[in-house]
Amino acid sequence: MHTHTLAQLAEGLASKKFSSVDLTRHFLNRIQSLDATLNSVITPTPEQALKQAEAADERRSKGQPLGLLDGLPILHKDIFCTEGVRTSCGSRMLDNFTAPYNAEVVVRLLNAGMVMLGKTNMDEFAMGSSNETSYYGPVRNPWNTDRVPGGSSGGSAAAVAARLAPAATGTDTGGSIRQPAALCGLTGLKPSYGRISRWGMIAFASSLDQAGPMTQTAEDAALLLQCMAGHDPKDSTSVACSVPDYRAELNAPLTGMKIGLPREFFNETLDPRMAETIFSSLAVLERLGACRVDISLPHIDLSVPAYYVIAPAEASSNLARYDGVRFGYRCSNPTDLTDLYVRSRSEGFGPEVKRRILIGTYALSSGYYDAYYRKAQQTRRLIQHEFDAAFKICDLILAPTSPTVAFPLQDRKDPLSMYLSDIYTIGVNLAGIPALSLPCGQLDGLPVGMQLIGPYWGESRLLNTAHRFQQETAWHQAIPAQYR
Ligand code: GLN
After folding, report:
1. Which of 184, 322, 406, 423 could form a disulfide with 161 if both were Cys (CB 3.0 to 4.6 A apart)?
2. How many CB atoms lie within 10 A of CB 176?
3. Domain-embedded: residue 391
4. Please, are residues 205 and 310 in contact by the beta-carbon 8 Å criterion?
5. How many domains does the chain have?
6. CATH number (domain holding residue 46)
7. Residue 366: pLDDT band with limits 50, 70, 90
8. Which residues lie with the beta carbon below 6 Å from any ligand 1 atom?
């Protein structure tokens, strides 16, 4: 059962080959027996899962109305609030926090009939590209357990790659869905900003954060997006435009589609073996009728520096709420209020989170605001305009997802080298546009991902292109040896 996609499992449930309880037990057993090394699931929720599965089986047997993904299991990144279940965001600060309500994403997937198997490990407050900043320890990549799974949604990626769940949710502020998807051989979609509600999703950088699906296939990503997307009055940045039928477009022909290759990405800095892998994938798309156009994003190299001003600035403000007073970690025996704040925050946050708070507070302080924050926002607008201009001459943009395959644990100790893991993904978040990473090859036995970037609300075209590619190739079906 675990080698099946969501779409295949849905058929199995419909034709009564197995029940939701069978399916849920199977995945819970896999988590229990296989996750000790990976450390991808930090809070399994077996009792709740079995109750939800029993309810799904009952709905089906009584002929009651069913949700689109009724009875199918999923894991949620521990950044989404889950009622009555610990919601830690990978931090000691929230290790004792049980959310009193469900995130909108969680509610929508519950309403679609899905069964929550548990919560996945992640970089602390989603800050990282290797899942090594988690308070609960690093996650290991199922393709090679000496390597990182990518981050910050590393737990979700490792769990789905090892088939401990058929799919998982993630969030992407600067690449955290796409980069781990690439490093673990999955399909990961960051939708347009505003497509999915951020209500109940713990905030890192609010103008960049977006939830999305992490799956085996584009078809499964379409199924999940269908349920997750849509306006939510509780999130003022969620956009009130209608949600298309993503599955209806999956098989559309690619004839005449123009795929733009940014010359700033395909230059001598790109690993030649990575470039070769991506070019042979482009050849597949060309055989399907797409054609290549060369484009330019002249200021894309400024996306990492702009992001590392804007994201920490927003984080420093968002993380001010963790003061040891109302919820979360509180130090023992504070001598006065200042001591309570200082020690609760010093003991509750890890080093990367502190670094971001310091950078952000500095960039926003008077005298530096114009020099850093305003400049970064101006750069962001410039990058948005360059993407807009590119989409006047192409329908989609093709790019690498990550400069390298999964790297060894503890390999990138210097924060700058870690920040450069996201050079191909961050511009997309600054522009607010959608992008999808999908497996397109392997190097040294490790998955390689390629990225398709679309214009605002272009999710359908991304899913369509990825789906057509996956019908011609088998990279998305590869499963690491010990987990088959
Ligand atoms: N790696 C980037 C960072 O550390 C992006 C993280 C994310 O997308 N949540 O900020």
Report:
1. 184
2. 36
3. no
4. yes
5. 1
6. 3.90.1300.10
7. confident
8. 126-129, 152, 172-176, 204, 311, 422
